[in-house]
Amino acid sequence: AYRMKRKDQNKNDTAERIQKVRSMWTLIVEMLTSLKKEKEVVESVLEDCVNPCILDGTDVFLHVPGLLTYRIESNIYGFCTGNLYEDGNLNFLTVIQLLNEALMTLIDEHCPCELKELHRIQDVVTSYKKILHELKT
């Protein structure tokens, strides 16, 4: 009886894994289908060039501002890893990480939400203290 239960459990586990793989494969196919038009646009641009484009970044020079460099170097989580250039070519993954960190810096500068929230809370506390003082008087 134990062996039969174990065999049934193994079959169920296998069926679940197969179902997971099938659902993941369906998602992949849907994503590729949704990106088909974008892929065709990029291919047409690259093919229609008089001089074919090679996206290797050899002619690109990136200047990283000091604030961004400091933020990345002092980041304890190490989100931005790798060199900007590898074998003379631009490392696009590192560039994307760098741009993401730059956007986070801009968000922090233009929307210091915690500070705004803190000021709002301080205002509420001050108004409640005032009301409490008036009630006591």
TrEMBL record:
Gene Ontology CC terms, in alphabetical order: HAUS complex; mitotic spindle microtubule
Record's protein name: HAUS6 protein
GO biological process, one term: spindle assembly
GO molecular function: microtubule binding
InterPro entries xref list: HAUS_6 (IPR026797)
